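Protein in question passed on here:
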Amino acid sequence: MKLIHVHGFTELEPESLIAKQYRKFTKELHWNLQVQEFKWNTLEGNLTKLVANFHESDRRVKEVALRLVEAIAAEKEAVILSGHSLGGAILLEALELYPDFFNLHSVILLGAAYPQKNILSQIQNINPRYYALNYHSPRWDLVLNQAYFNAKGCIAVGSKGLLNPGIFENLKVNCTHDGHTGYARLVPGIIGLLAHTQEIKSAEKAKKPWQPIAIGNTEDWDDLYHIDGHILQRNCITGYFRIIEEGGVHRERFYSKSVIPLLDALAELQNNHLSSVGGKVVEILNSVSGMTEAHGRDFYRATPLFNLRDGCVLKTWKNSVGVEHIFIANGDGKMVFGGFVGWVHSENLRQAIAEIREEFA
C-alpha cells in the first residue's frame, strides 16, 4: 500500500513537513506503508515568479492533475491520496478527470486551495474503500481566508468546505495554513484512522474520564472524524485524542495518546449495545465469505430491507460497480454493523440474508 501526498504551491524543500509527518507517524506504528510525495515544479526555482504563477495557477493545476492521474493509474496496489493547499486542488482536478480508480483506499484534503464555487460533477463517482475527508479551517487559515480570497475573489474549499460534499465529509479544524500549527498537526490522527483499517495495533490504551461531565467545543480541539453519533478529536496543544458524544451537549467517552485504541473502544461500546438478536445476526454476516468492513458514510445510502425482532433494521445498498453492501441500524437509527462482499461472494450474502429473514425478522 502507498500514500501519495501532493504538496502545496510554494514548497521548495526536498520534502514537505506534511510528508515528513506521514512518514514519522507511520514508522512509529511499525506500519509498512510507503509514503511518496508527488513533486511538481511550483516556482521554477525563481521566487520572483511567485505572483505570476499564483495568478496562472488554474492552468498549472490542470496540467499537473493530468500527470497525477497517470501516476495513480500506474499503481497496482491500494493507494491513499493526500493533498495540501494547491496540492489539494490538483488532487480534486485529478479525481474529477478520472473518478474510476479501482484501487482507491482513501482521500485526504488538507486546506485545499480550490474554488468552492467550481462544480465537481464526476468526483461524486469516486469510490474510496474507507475515507474521503476534507479538513477546512474557516477562521485560522489566513492564507486561504485572506490571501487566496483577495487574489481569486472566491472562497476556497479549504476555508468553508465543499458545497456539495457528496462522498466527502467536511471537517472543521482550527489550523493555520503551514508549519506545525498548520494541517501537519492533524497527521498523527489521520495516520491512526488509516492504520486502523489495516488492523494495526498501538501500545497505548483507551482511558475513561473521571466522570462523564458535559464539555463544550473549544478551539483547542480539532475534529478528525465523525463516527455514528460520536466525534473523534485531537487537542492541538497536548496532542491527546478523545471520543465525545455528538449533539448539543457533548460528553467525553474515552481519551488516549493514540487514535487506534479509541476506535477499538468505540467499536466495543457499540457491540455491547446490540441485543442478543442483533449479535446473532452480526455473527451470521461476519461468517459470510469475503465479508469486509464497510464505510459508515455508505450507511446513509442504504435502504431498509426488513426489521428484526429487536427493532433493528437490515439495510442494503449496491454501489456503482455492483458491489453489495449490508448494514444493521439499531432502534435509534445508528449503524451497528456495516459490510460488503465482492461479486464472487454475492450469492453467499443473499443466502445469509434469507436465513436472517427466516429466523430473526
